[in-house]
Amino acid sequence: MNIRLGVPRTFATAALAITMLLATFSPHASTIDTADAAEAGIDGEHIYAGISYESDPSLDRCEWVLPETVHQLGVRAGLTIRYWNGISWTLYNCERGGESRLVWLPDISVETAAESTRDVVRDRVPQLLHNFSPAPHKGIVKTPTWFWVHPALWRPVSVTARVPTPRGIVTMTTTATPSSLEFHPGDGTGDVADCDGPGLSWSPLLPSFVDSDCTYEYPIPSAHQQGGVFRARLDVV
């Protein structure tokens, strides 16, 4: 998005333009290929009770029992352990209410499962579109530029992962909570304008004495910059 700011007559008559980038908030996370591969799924007749993010009572209150197989009788090896999606899985009987079914459980750590929730949270964070006043194409140097995001979207986003284990269902929750805005103006000054919360929505109905903590004043126009623009960025932290 390009933001253009004019200059009052007391200054040079060059325009100020900003190329805006928006970065939404997200929790810190590392590479989680293992966690992705350990998600629940079905391969033919095999049920893989891996990481899931929806409530599924079908595996609750299971008594997990290693099935008696020819592997245990010493005839063949590898019948209760197999690899799927690059993950080691162990075959168990889910016994509940007089019924049983064979289910594969993943050999992953709680830390790996927790990492998977952070990736899902990142995908579910809404795009917090930025707003400016004066409008992007009508801004003015040496005049406060207000910035904010819609307050209705300023809310925590949580994801809970469920992982069946022989000891029962393990759950872990990751929550991404927006805290503040950081505006990087890109004008070469090194300044960063930050404020708590989503910022105050500007309106022509606001009294003149109302001010916002989420503002930035550009000291110079961008006319002499390469391409005639400043590359700015708005972060939600």
Architecture overview:
This protein folds into 2 domains: 2-30 and 125-236, no CATH class; 39-107, no CATH class. It is mainly beta and 237 residues long. Strands 10-1-2-17-14-15 form a 6-stranded mixed sheet, with no helix packed on it. It has helices at 33-37, 110-124; strands at residues 2-6, 16-23, 41-43, 46-48, 63-65, 81-84, 87-96, 99-106, 130-133, 139-140, 145-149, 157-165, 168-176, 180-184, 193-196, 215-216, 230-236. It is built from 2 helices and 17 strands.
Topology summary:
Elements: E1 2-6, E2 16-23, H1 33-37, E3 41-43, E4 46-48, E5 63-65, E6 81-84, E7 87-96, E8 99-106, H2 110-124, E9 130-133, E10 139-140, E11 145-149, E12 157-165, E13 168-176, E14 180-184, E15 193-196, E16 215-216, E17 230-236
SSE run:
EEHEEEEEEHEEEEEEEEE
Overall, the morphology is elongated
Structural class: mainly beta
* Sequence stretches where pLDDT stays below 50 over 5 or more residues: 1-15, 20-35, 73-77
The domain count comes to 2
Q: Got a strand count? A: 17
Arithmetic mean pLDDT: 74
- What is the count of DSSP helices, taking H or I runs of 4+ residues? 2
Oligomer: single chain
Question: What gap, in angstroms, lies between the N and C termini?
Answer: 21 Å
Helical content (DSSP H or I, runs of 4+): under 10%
